[in-house]
Structures are given as structure tokens and as C-alpha cells.
Amino acid sequence: MSVTIKDVAKAAHVSVASVSRVLNGRENVNEETRKRILAAVRRLRYIPNGAARSLITRRTHTLGALLPDLHGEFFSELIRGIDIAARAHGQHLLVSSSHGDADEAAAALRTMRGKVDGLLVMSPYADADFLADNLPPAMPTVLINTPHTPDNCMAMSVDNHAGAYAMVEHLASLGHRHIAFINGPDDNFEAQNRLLGYRDAMAEFLPGTPLQILEGEFTDVSGYRAGQHLLQLEQRPDAVFAANDMMAIGCLSALHEAGLRVPEDIALAGFDDIPLARYITPKLTTVRVHIAELGEQALERLVQAIEDPNADAEREKTLESELVLRASSGTSAHKTRRKTAHVSKV
Questions:
Q1: Does one domain contain both 238 and 259?
Q2: CA dist., res. 240 & res. 232, Å (int)
Q3: Which of 12, 81, 60 lies closest to 298, judged by CA?
Q4: Per-residue pLDDT for the chain (346 aa), expressed as one digit of tens each?
Q5: CATH number for the domain including 238?
Q6: What separation in angstroms does the CA of 76 have from each of 57, 111, 137, 183, 292?
Q7: Domain, as residue range, for 177
Q8: Does this UniProt record's set of keywords contain S-adenosyl-L-methionine (predicted)?
Q9: Based on C-alpha coordinates, what's the Rg of the chain?
Q10: Spatial separation of the C-alpha atoms in residues 113 and 79, rounded to whole Å
């Protein structure tokens, strides 16, 4: 027969309530009693019944994360940060992807109802109507890089505009006058802000220069296609700024295949600073997003909201971006005058 909580209580000479308090991490048990109970748990090899504990505590000790995709280095780093914080708090993770589809995102959120204590949501479709239709009103929720923050949610974001603005300023400071931009998906909130940063910086530092904006999908394949398109232009740009590193890497491949040298013939920069960016040749100048930290802080805020729903927490928090200057943009580090707090030379 399986060991029950009553068997543990009997072996430790305490009440069932005392055993329950220790197993649930409560502090109102003296240290000697706590040690005696834990020793009995180990000796009897007692395994708590998760379903029964959930009925008592009304907690599943599981957190949900809805992401646009699970493929690629960005999401790998984001999940790593989320997982680090989850394990530190003894939480399990239920992770799902919307695969770029609003209906799938809604279905994933519906599936998680009743199975998780809180949600992390990163979705380009998370506008006011989507969140109102699909988020349970009382569910603690932290939104990551989404365009709208309802009153009952918290938000974590990256200063995408400032990062893009600073990168264009850096490229212009090196003497580049024609800077092309490979955009991300049109319906993506982060892509929209990075594009706006590019536009604003071009107007500020290179007024009157025609903008070159190419379509992209945040994938290496779309970056490769954009690079091939640039090669066909009558006047190629001096520099290419891709809205994420994977597109920059794809573009680099197209340029290499055409026999162009980076940065001698054309400078190149990306955004995110995924781990691969520092290992390609030449190493990629980029805007560093502290991806794992973004996931870790988002989950920390979610746990705080679950543990203390009435806490006066900061509703919206923005992480600063950072220029990381490497060989692909050309000359040595140039410290920008504003918009971003840090410049790293790697």
C-alpha cells in the first residue's frame, strides 16, 4: 500500500496539519518539528499527491508560457531564462506556441485554463480585444513585448526603438550614408518599434536620404532573400541593418556568395545578440537584448503577483538595450550620444 500523509504524521508524532504546513512551505512550524517531519518523509519515501494538494492550496504549482514560436536561438534563450526562475521557485512550466496564428494562440490559452497558476504571454496578436476574449480576468499574467497592457496585467518589454535608433546613429557616425533596413513581420509589435527607430534616426542623422526598407520575417531565409534583392539594386547601400540577428546572418550568406566582403564592401548589423552572433565571420555588430534576463524577470514578476496579489508592483517595466560593436560594422567603437545606455566592444 502507498504511504499517506497520515503515516508521515504518525511516524513524526505530529498532526496531519503540521505535515501539510511543512510540505507546502509554510513558516509557522518550528525548526525541530520541521526536521522530524522531513526525516519521516524521506524514511517512508512519501510522495505527496499533487492533485490532492492542489485541492487544498488551490495551486497547481505550474505556470504557462505562450510564445510565438519555440524554434530559434531567441526563443531558446528566452525559455532558458524563464526555466531558471521557475526552477528557483519550485514551479513547473507548461509551454506552448501560437505558430504565428491568432486562433492557435487563443486555443492554447483556453487549454491552459485550470492547469496553471499564472501566465506569461508573448504574442503579436495580444491587442485589447484578444486579451479580453482569452485571458481569465483573475489570472495573474505578465505580457512580454506586446502592444497593449490591460489593467489586470503586468508587462515586460525591451526598448526596441532606442536600440534601433542607436544602431543607425552608430552606422552614420562611421560615414555610412545609405543604410538599408531589413524589416520584421508587419504585424509584429517589436518589428514595428525597430522600424520606427530606424526611421527616426535616419531623419535625425541622415535627413533627405532615401529609405531602403526590405521585407523580412525574422528568419535567416528571409534575410538571405533580402540580401539577394540588395545585390540586384543599381546602387547598393553602404550598410545593412537587419531587425534581428537571424536575418542579418542570412543576408551575410547572400553577400558572401556574391563575393562581397563584410565590412569592407558593405557593413552589416543585427538586433538581439543571439549567441551565434559572436561566432560567425565576421562577428556581428548588433543590439543586445538580454534575452534570458527578460524571461527570468518576467517569471519573477509573475511569481510575485501569484504570491501577493495585492502588492503594489510596477505595472510596466522596460529593459534597456545595448550596442555591441564587432567586426561586421567596420571601425572601432563609437559611443552614441543618447537613446541607449550602454555600448560594448567585443
A1: yes
A2: 14
A3: 81
A4: 578 888 999 999 999 888 888 876 666 788 899 889 989 988 988 876 654 555 445 678 899 999 988 888 899 999 999 999 999 998 999 999 887 778 888 888 888 888 899 999 998 767 778 877 888 778 899 999 887 788 788 999 999 999 999 999 999 999 999 999 999 998 888 999 999 999 999 999 999 999 999 999 999 999 999 999 999 998 899 999 999 999 999 999 999 999 999 999 999 999 999 999 999 999 999 999 999 999 999 999 999 999 887 776 778 899 999 999 999 998 654 444 344 545 666 6
A5: 3.40.50.2300
A6: 32, 23, 29, 22, 9
A7: 160-290+322-345
A8: no
A9: 25
A10: 21
Same domain (yes/no): 106, 123: yes
Place of cell 499533487: 50
CA dist list (Å): 118 to 54, 85, 123, 193, 268: 14, 14, 16, 28, 40
Write out the E strands in the chain. 62-67, 92-97, 118-121, 141-144, 154-158, 179-182, 212-214, 239-242, 267-269, 286-288, 316-319, 322-325, 342-345
In order of 3, 18, 107, the CA distances from 6 in angstroms are: 8, 11, 41
Going edge to edge, which strands form the sheet with 92-97?
Answer: 92-97, 62-67, 118-121, 141-144, 154-158, 316-319
Residues 338 and 196 in one domain: yes
Q: SS3 of 214, please?
A: strand
Closest of 115, 157, 149, 156 to residue 130, by C-alpha: 149
108-128 burial, b for 16+ CB within 10 Å, e for fewer? bbeebeeebbbbbbbbbbbee
